[in-house]
Write a structure and sequence with these properties.
Shape: globular
Number of helices: 6
Order of helices and strands: EHEHHEHEHEH
Number of domains: 1
Helix content: 25-40%
Strand order of the largest sheet: 2-1-3-4-5
CATH architecture: 3-Layer(aba) Sandwich
Strand content: 15-25%
Radius of gyration: 15 Å
CATH class: Alpha Beta
Length: 181
């Protein structure tokens, strides 16, 4: 079986974020046959909707957009770790999605929300956007503060590791079935 490349996305850029801890934990649960890499949107640092052309044209003129496109295309799948801010997902994630177009079509994307309510609102909203860009969205577990995580992002023993492993199984299966765009 070929090794599948999976990007584990930290989708918050707040200085006080816990996304790096969540993403590292998710990455430790990757099965054999998966080459995982953490992708930090704070480090990607895309300008907000700055391309002169619409993303649907595929005519990217900015080096940051071209680099983001190449990076996304280098993965067989993504797993997004998503917090909930005021019942929604972070603007930096929306911008990362809206900056590209064709790269999302058919791309398997697993979603793991985390927050007081397991990020249910942000995961729901994100699902609508991923459906619009024609990604293959795979729901993962929601992590709750006080049950699965401390508010500081430490992973508790009760965290659903088996559910994350199950998400990896789904993501890898979808990646193997994917017909590149």
């Amino acid at each position: 079986m070929d090794t599948q490349r999976i990007g584990i996305v930290i989708s918050s850029s707040r200085p006080t974020r816990i996304g790096p801890k969540v993403a590292r934990w998710v990455s430790t649960l990757a099965p054999a046959g998966a080459d995982v890499e953490i992708v930090d949107l704070a480090e990607i640092d895309l300008p907000f909707l700055a391309e002169p052309e619409q993303p649907a044209t595929g005519s990217y003129s900015m080096p940051s957009t071209t680099a983001w496109s190449e990076r996304v295309r280098s993965y067989d799948a993504l797993i997004l770790t998503v917090p909930e801010y005021n019942a929604g997902y972070p603007a930096v994630l929306k911008n990362a999605i809206d900056t590209l177009h064709a790269e999302w079509k058919g791309l398997p994307i697993g979603v793991i929300g985390y927050g007081w309510g397991a990020a249910a609102g942000s995961v729901r909203q994100l699902g609508e956007v991923l459906e619009r860009v024609q990604a293959v969205t795979l729901a993962g577990p929601g992590l709750r503060f006080g049950q699965d995580l401390t508010p500081e992002g430490e992973v508790l023993e009760a965290a659903p590791a088996d559910d994350v492993r199950g998400l990896y199984d789904q993501v890898l299966a979808a990646a193997r079935e994917r017909v590149p765009a």
